[in-house]
Amino acid sequence: MKKGWEIKKLGDVCDLSAGGDVPKSNFSDLPNKEYFIPIYANGEKNNGLYGYTNILKVAKPSITISARGTIGYSVKRLEPFYPVVRLIVVTPKNYDELYLDYLFYYLKIIDFIHSGTSIPQLTVPMIKDYEILIPPLTEQNHIVSILDKCFENIDKAIEITKQNLNNTKQLFQSYLNQVFTQKGKNWQTKKLKEICIIQPSKDEIKNKLDKSDLVSFLPMADLERFQYEIKPKKLRKLEEVEKSYTYFSDNDVLLAKITPCFENGKLGIVKNLINRIGFGSSEFIVFRCNNDLLPEYLFYFLATQNFKNEGKNNMQGAVGHRRISKEWIENYSISFPKSIPDQKILIHRIYIFLSETQKLENIYKQELSDLESLKKSILQKAFSGNLKT
């Protein structure tokens, strides 16, 4: 440690507080009621009143740390604000000892240890004993000035790389839309219901399997975006899934019909099913192509932005539960070459173009990872006293 630097605990040099729920058995005892908003939940106790959320204003420049879900994300707050639920507020006790911007950068190198398994949580007692290196104020200012300049340039590079990544994705979509809109000779146009069985009947598997036989199982969470081959890893007994879940078999095309899964492009072709049979989410639309259309061709067609935009504009239902309807899907038109060999040629061209764009995407993703690693490396040098210029 450099001469003149000190090690202190976060709770000794900062005031720590947390916005959050304040359950009370007797709400009449709650102090400063005007600074709390009520929270209601199902139940008869206190007419459904569960507790209160602290909205006491923080007047001093501070830093907030996310304390639930995404742990440790920090934001600098220079203006007075009201801390919302699930934030920890960190305020220097003495700004002449601890520069706020220095603290902001220092919090980025802390690996916060949290509680909770399904939902990570962070509390004030969990962070108050974290140690922080504190150099003299002049040196804090010097470190911050260097970091500001470095991070400004790195952030510009990150934005450019993100734009390049987005442009690459749009390039593939542009190519995909071009393939399906510029019809060649010997193409035909039909409604999807004319060339696909949509939502095949479960009656197909009657007498094929015993109730105790295993089948593949695919919940919505396991269906990825633009998944060319879906190979479900989960298994269920037939009797457990045949009544409540959607039926499909090998080489069927699955499409998520509910928002936001539909807009996110959750789509794929199922392969290698146990006993060639699978069941999954009731929010799947299942397509089984007839002999005139290859499932791979349909897969790429359903992945086009044009199709997703039209589907989004024709959704039905309440907000948060909007879906594309089976009727809309059945009557949607698709153009395709009459010849299966011609379809295969197009599929191959799309695959080659996709492979090239994915190589570019991987390059840009690696660049983003490298830039974030560079930030961490610079921070480590700064707080070990090795950052000179």
Short description:
This protein has helices at 10-13, 100-107, 124-127, 137-181, 192-195, 238-241, 295-302, 305-313, 326-330, 340-382; strands at 6-9, 14-19, 21-23, 36-40, 49-54, 62-66, 74-77, 87-92, 131-134, 187-191, 196-198, 214-218, 227-230, 234-237, 246-249, 253-256, 267-270, 277-280, 284-289, 333-337. With 389 residues, the chain is of the alpha+beta class. The chain has three domains: 6-135, DNA methylase specificity domains (Adenine-n6-DNA-methyltransferase TaqI, Chain A, domain 2); 137-167 and 343-389; 187-338, DNA methylase specificity domains (Adenine-n6-DNA-methyltransferase TaqI, Chain A, domain 2), CATH 3.90.220.
List the helices and strands and how they pair.
Blueprint: E1 6-9, H1 10-13, E2 14-19, E3 21-23, E4 36-40, E5 49-54, E6 62-66, E7 74-77, E8 87-92, H2 100-107, H3 124-127, E9 131-134, H4 137-181, E10 187-191, H5 192-195, E11 196-198, E12 214-218, E13 227-230, E14 234-237, H6 238-241, E15 246-249, E16 253-256, E17 267-270, E18 277-280, E19 284-289, H7 295-302, H8 305-313, H9 326-330, E20 333-337, H10 340-382
Parallel strand pairs: 12-18, 13-17
Antiparallel strand pairs: 1-9, 2-8, 3-5, 4-5, 6-7, 6-8, 10-20, 11-19, 12-14, 15-18, 16-17, 16-19
Helix pairs in contact: 4-10
